[in-house]
Amino acid sequence: MEKLLKMEKYQFLHNFVYWCGMIGIFVLGFFTADTYVPEVMGPAGGKASSLADIFNGMVYDSTFLLIIISGLLALSFGQEFSGRTITLEVSAGHSRSKIFTGKIISYLIAFHIMALVYPVAGCIREFGKFGMEDGGVFFYNVTKAIVYSLLLNSGIFLIAILICCYLQEQLLLRQLLFLHLVFISDME
Q: What is the pTM of this model?
């Protein structure tokens, strides 16, 4: 299992699509951070008074990014099928359950790192305005937002991973992932 996780880490560190997505999400978060100062959680939310308000507002509004991130990671996962790396892992003697568990662990970590880049970029941008008045309250709010985000986003993203692993036909896989993303976006 350790070798599988090392291989997944290597693949993500050298994946062009993943890094372009990370840079794009960082730039998006950095340039949209100013819009959260006057109205943190929409018109009823009021003006931001701390860096924690900016972070929470950006996490709250990052649901549109989840669709983009799922698409980018599905593209990366599809590259593994087209490159036959999964069949090579099986032929190397790894069990399917270990491969599946390794994929779940690595893709969920990659998904959540990409999702957190957006609010972190906004906090970097707004640090000059708000500073770090009370670090304890800030880190409490950040930890709470991260835990809630991890719990909610993991359930949604696991559906896409299950579809990818059980349906290896490329055309059918892409159609089902598209329908999954459309269904999730219609729910919001």
A: 0.72
